[in-house]
Amino acid sequence: GDVVDVLGAPSADTDAHPRVVATNAVVVLVSPASAVAGPGNDRVVLVALPAPAANALAGATLVQTVTLTIH
Q1: CA separation (Å) from 16 to 12, 29, 64?
Q2: DSSP code at position 32
Q3: pLDDT > 90 in the chain, percent
Q4: Which of 8, 11, 12 is nearest to 22 (CA)?
Q5: How far apart are CA 11 and CA 4, in angstroms?
């Protein structure tokens, strides 16, 4: 139920500035933490957004790294 903003930046471009991809997204689900430490243990966060914003966010995650900021 937390409210978050989603920021993204292209992974390969070290000079890229982050941009806001979505605002006021509501967290619906967070995947459990991995029991084994190591690379590739990122957790998945499912957020609820209106359809146009959800589509834009889904597309952004295909080509860039995203992170969340909690309000």
Answers
A1: 9, 29, 11
A2: P
A3: 62
A4: 8
A5: 21
Distance in Å from the first CA to the final CA of the chain:
11
What residues are paired with 27 via a beta bridge?
A: 47
- What is the pTM assigned to this prediction? 0.81
Q: What is the pLDDT of residue 17?
A: 84
Q: pLDDT value at position 35? A: 78
| Amino acid letter for position 60 | A
CA distances from 19 to 7, 9, 30, 40, 63 (A): 5, 7, 23, 24, 13
